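W.,

You were right to be curious about this one. When I first looked at the sequence I had no strong expectations either way, so I just let the prediction run and decided to look at it fresh. Below is the sequence, 180 residues in total, followed by the output.
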Amino acid sequence: MTTPATSSSTEDFCDHASVGVLIPSLDGLLVFERRRPPVGIAPVAGHLDQHGGPEAAAHTEVTEEVGLTVTRLHLLLEQWRPNQCGRTPTGPVGHHWWIFEAQVYGSLCPSAREVRTPRWIHPDQLQQYALRTAAYAERRLSREEFEQEPGLEPVWVRFLHDLQLLNVPARTLDRIDTVL
């Protein structure tokens, strides 16, 4: 028998620690629209929670979100970002992030609870999603328009820029940081 979730569940509160996992293939980079806040297109990501560490969390999130098994994991980036999430903050808003690149095996089996329209995209498509996020941050798109047809989840634009997967001017990155 499953015990109903209560308001004191650890998943109700933010632990301020998150992992992101880039899964590349010959078809591009695996991304999807998030079903739960924050809105946007993103690679696999999630809170550290009780996973035991960033590497364990990365393995678990890949399996939970897209049904793949990680065979190799490489840390690409580690940094603090002042981004909000869908949980209740327990201190200053933001997360310590560990961004990994993963090699995986298995068949893509996305979580209906967390993933909408998974797809493999190439750098030019990634850049187009970043431009849509920039338009939202610059108020050329309303929140409703961005939710209807999202760009990249804002926190991912700077990560992907820092990893040289996007080319975004510093001023635009700073503007996007205002909608984290």
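Here's what jumped out at me. The domain at 10-177 is CATH 3.90.79.10 (Nucleoside Triphosphate Pyrophosphohydrolase). And, maybe more interesting for your project: Residues 17 and 96 are 5 Å apart (CA to CA).

Coffee later to discuss?

I.
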